[in-house]
Amino acid sequence: xxxxxxxxxxxxxxxxxxxxxxxxxxxxxxxxxxxxxxxxxxxxxxxxxxxxxxxxxxxxxxxxxxxxxxxxxxxxxxxxxxxxxxxxxxxxxxxxxxxxxxxxxxxxxxxxxxxxxxxxxxxxxxxxxxxxxxxxxxxxxxxxxxxxxxxxxxxxxxxxxxxxxxxxxxxxxxxxxxxxxxxxxxxxxxxxxxxxxxxxxxxxxxxxxxxxxxxxxxxxxxxxxxxxxxxxxxxxxxxxxxxxxxxxxxxxxxxxxxxxxxxxxxxxxxxxxxxxxxxxxxxxxxxxxxxxxxxxxxxxxxxxxxxxxxxxxxxxxxxxxxxxxxxxxxxxxxxxxxxxxxxxxxxxxxxxxxxxxxxxxxxxxxxxxxxxxxxxxxxxxxxxxxxxxxxxxxxxxxxxxxxxxxxxxxxxxxxxxxxxxxxxxxxxxxxxxxxxxxxxxxxxxxxxxxxxxxxxxxxxxxxxxxxxxxxxxxxxxxxxxxxxxxxxxxxxxxxxxxxxxxxxxxxxxxxxxxxxxxxxxxxxxxxxxxxxxxxxxxxxxxxxxxxxxxxxxxxxxxxxxxxxxxxxxxxxxxxxxxxxxxxxxxxxxxxxxxxxxxxxxxxxxxxxxxxxxxx
Length: 615
Prior knowledge:
mainly beta
């Protein structure tokens, strides 16, 4: 029992002693924790972090240079529609985390991919965070299977898809090649533009300019400043020009000058020109000038160079500096092959080859070449004016071969106070002046003596001789009839009316008035005193007077008169007025009774002597 008690007592003591020892070790461990101590020691050896609000940053004496990329570092995830640029190949890749942590230096067969475009170069800087790159040496961009861009350097921003190529730049899009020294290519809009001079070449033309823009999608181009287009057949110069490399259509948007085969010059401010078909539409008073001296001007001109045919609309002017004539109209055309020009709708021909300009108007005017001779034809409502001669007819032709003006369809010609008419009239010219007028069929020549009296000659044919623009002599051949008012030489009063019939009559004029009449021996005539005139004695059967329709100036050529049968204008009231006026004058002179006696004697003796000359 004793031994057992001692063992229990000893065991209990050991347990108590072990517990006290554990408590001591726990207290010692709590006082000395190695990990916490190390941390505290390390912290005591490290200076506390300064407060950025109160303490300035310490600047080292040596600062590493910071490389700024060409494009700002913007995450593509922050830009709508932006996609990443991927590096697909490079023989070597290096980077300096301290010097340029955001730049990867790539060398050897470098290839990038961005969407559907591949970019190749010898070396490059790749800004991964900025989603951009700088490429050097043998730069090449391949987009799809139709677009290829070459250059020595490339600065590419993948966020906005802008490629800036420099030095020896060349863009090839199917059959179109663009070359320049500096080119910006926007892949979002597929627009390429240069600003230091460039050239675009397609299958038809070569275009150069200082500034240019080219769309690889629709092939539209815009050129500005010193635009120069060269074609195998022509050269175009302009300040600005739009051009499509697929359709080969040039849109003129600025003053442009086209020189075609050194034979045609075209000037236009606005229009379009299909360089493939050689057809064009020119607006805003454009001008086509031929080397043969002919010029076409109009508000709108359609011109086909292959067919050598031009058509103009609205205020068209066709000028011929060789023949010194101008053709006007609101519609006209001219063929270089046939040398035929036509004008209608207010058509007017102006012949300024002589001192006095001749103006001819008709519904339609034609001007053509017969061998080396000019031919002019006018149809319907023909009217012409010159200072010394005026006229009208239904149709007119003139040829420089014989210098004869032919008038058909009730023609009428005026010269001074003289009116010449018939069914057909020929005017013969020499040195651009009329010297003879031939009237055939129902020919009549009328001269106004005063407001109511007209000297008249009628017959099968009348030949009027003109000298220095004045009518000097009139020959009437076949069935000649005359009505003539002799004048008293003392007081220039009309003494009566002389009416004759013969086969041949000649009238001489002096100072633009009838001076004397010469007739054949087989002439019959009657002298009527002024106080005893009747209606049938005043006018010949085919007499008419169209002074109201006579053009007084070039503006009168466009007056329109209704087409009516030509009847005698003399009426009973007019005849009575003339007779009354003349009778009153006769009574005042006291010669009325003498005139009556003279009338009776004249009616009994109607036969005239041979070669009679009446003054």
